[in-house]
Amino acid sequence: MCALLGNALDNAMEAAANAQDKRVEIRVRADRGMLMLRVENSFEDAPTEKRGMFATMKENAEAHGFGIRGMHEIAARYGGTLDTKVIGNRFELVACLMFQVPSESET
């Protein structure tokens, strides 16, 4: 889960750094056995989709661009989902992951 959060924040901060309106918003909520993460950021150049996923904007594209695919795999591993979309000049990533609350005997 830390890899998903770290990658989402790294991508958001990198994109927002090049935008006029440098903004990254993060919301995390745990409720009813689910962890919900929403990361929204501004960007200067709109990301492009490649095979249903957003392509990397980094110079060495061959060595990058596995992050969102990896985040999808992490979400699936935790019985959850990960959705991304572009809304105007903002990118939004929403992940919902299932987690098991420890029983009293495990705490």
Give an overview in words.
The chain is an alpha+beta fold and 107 residues long. The chain contains two helices and six strands; from the N terminus they run H-E-E-E-E-H-E-E. The longest helix has 16 residues, at 2-17. It is elongated and about 40 Å long.
| Rg of Cα set | 15 Å
Shape type = elongated
Low-confidence stretches: none
Kindly report the spatial arrangement of strands forming the biggest sheet: 1-2-6-5
**Helical percent range?**
25-40%
Order of helices and strands: HEEEEHEE
Question: What structural category characterises the helix and strand content?
Answer: alpha+beta
What's the end-to-end separation, in Å?
Answer: 20 Å
Total helical elements: 2
Write down the overall mean pLDDT. 81
**Relative strand content:** 25-35%
Please report the total strand number as a whole number: 6
Main sheet summary: 4 strands, antiparallel
